[in-house]
């Protein structure tokens, strides 16, 4: 069960050519700048728009193939769609909105699963209200509930948080995390917000000017500052998995383990899940040839340089594998599955420090975002 998309289409003067494959679980971010073709692409997957040619498979079912003249209508594709604006029927109650799609669906979700979803989304107290009496965040929760109750094979989410303010976004994000971690449904999540990608996504498809440029794990893709939509972005960098190992409430810090390296971040309380995600922006990583002392940054990590690439005239991107290679050998960026940190420094600094492949240096991390909370080093 997975999703394969290989299509080409023309919208006025805009050419769309997409070719990618997404796994059957977890969240795949469809990431690209405004006007790159993200909405058109998910409309095509949903069956709301017909491409000129190509092939689309959802969970091993061919839903579109121009050669075989297959083009299933939207209602038969088993796709749940959450739009930027919730698009609820204004004259229907929350309950009627929720069951509108579910009622028509032959493959109904078992009743206990329906209840679990409504409970998880906190919708039960809202059932009798009409959309006009809901907040933006509540509307999006109902929209998400409606999509899930239709028992889809895939959930398509078109910038579901873009119409919400920061507080409402924080209210909704945990629901997506719950879906990602507890329900085995693949999600294609359209966004141009790197922080949402870093927090939620397992995989990433990068699109620019109507072309899908690359796809892969979010850990690998966010480090690809060579891809135009990510290049030059100050927030491009690294996503790492870490585990909270201890906390010191008096000093108001938490200690994390990341691939054997210890990281210190501001106090994280006692989350239900000790596994967290870190997003470290390339611009927030400095490089030192010897371990610096007497500095405010708490996180100084031994790393080995695995790649140096010129980003533009003034800056270079440096890939750093966590830890010092015992034998000093330099390996390439894939780093045998070992986490890689990315630093963006000036070309002058790289030249001055005489940085080279395989060198053992120290990464000084100025700021870490832990699952959406900025854990600045100024603590
Ligand atoms: N029906 C149409 N006719 C002609 N051009 C279209 C049509 N629909 C979309 N386009 C063009 O296709 C391009 C891609 O639009 P699309 O809405 O898919 O981009 P997007 O990545 O979702 O953008 P945003 O992030 O701003 O929502 C744009 O240049 C848009 O103007």
Automatic annotation (TrEMBL):
One of its GO terms (molecular function) is ATP binding. It holds the Pfam family TOBE. Coiled coil: none annotated. InterPro entries: AAA+_ATPase, ABC_transporter-like_ATP-bd, ABC_transporter-like_CS, Mo/tungstate-bd_C_term_dom, ModC_ABC_ATP-bd, Molybdenum_import_ModC, Mop_domain, P-loop_NTPase. The keyword Oxidoreductase does not apply. It comes from the Bacteria. Residues 294-374 form the Mop domain. Keywords: ATP-binding, Cell inner membrane, Cell membrane, Membrane, Molybdenum, Nucleotide-binding, Translocase, Transport. Residues 2-234 form the ABC transporter domain. The keyword Translocase applies. NCBIfam families: modC_ABC. This is Molybdenum ABC transporter ATP-binding protein. It comes from Thalassospira povalilytica. The lineage of its organism: Bacteria, Pseudomonadati, Pseudomonadota, Alphaproteobacteria, Rhodospirillales.
């Amino acid at each position: 069960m997975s999703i394969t998309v290989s299509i080409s289409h023309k919208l006025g003067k805009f050419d769309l050519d997409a070719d990618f494959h997404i796994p059957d679980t977890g969240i795949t971010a469809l990431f690209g700048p405004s006007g790159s073709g993200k909405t058109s692409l998910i409309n095509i997957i949903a069956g709301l728009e017909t491409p000129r040619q190509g092939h689309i498979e959802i969970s091993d079912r061919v839903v579109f193939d121009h050669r075989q003249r297959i083009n299933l209508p939207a209602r038969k594709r088993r796709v749940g769609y959450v739009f930027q604006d919730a698009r609820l029927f204004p004259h229907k109650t929350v309950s009627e909105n929720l069951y509108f799609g579910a009622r028509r669906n032959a493959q109904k979700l078992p009743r206990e699963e329906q209840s679990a979803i409504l409970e998880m989304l906190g919708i039960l107290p809202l059932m009798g209200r009409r959309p006009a009496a809901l907040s933006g965040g509540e509307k999006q929760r109902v929209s998400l509930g409606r999509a899930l109750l239709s028992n889809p094979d895939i959930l398509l989410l078109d910038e579901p948080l873009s119409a919400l303010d920061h507080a409402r976004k924080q209210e909704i994000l945990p629901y997506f995390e719950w879906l990602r971690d507890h329900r085995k449904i693949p999600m294609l999540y359209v966004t141009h917000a790197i922080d949402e990608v870093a927090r939620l996504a397992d995989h990433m498809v990068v699109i620019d000017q109507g072309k899908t440029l690359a796809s892969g794990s979010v850990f690998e893709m966010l480090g690809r500052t060579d891809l135009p939509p990510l290049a030059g972005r100050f927030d491009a960098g690294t996503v790492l998995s870490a585990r909270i190992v201890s906390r010191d409430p008096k000093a108001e810090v938490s200690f994390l383990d990341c691939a054997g390296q210890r990281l210190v971040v501001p106090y994280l309380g006692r989350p239900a899940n000790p596994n967290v995600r870190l997003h470290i922006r390339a611009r927030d990583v400095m490089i030192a040839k010897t371990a610096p002392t007497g500095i405010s940054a708490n996180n100084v990590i031994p790393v080995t340089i695995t790649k140096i690439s010129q980003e533009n005239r003034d800056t270079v991107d440096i890939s750093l594998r966590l830890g010092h290679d015992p034998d000093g050998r330099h390996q390439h960026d894939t780093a045998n599955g070992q986490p890689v940190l990315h630093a963006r420094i000036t070309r002058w600094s790289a030249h001055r420090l005489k940085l080279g492949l395989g060198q053992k240096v120290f990464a000084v991390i100025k700021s870490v975002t832990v699952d959406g909370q900025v854990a600045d080093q100024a603590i």
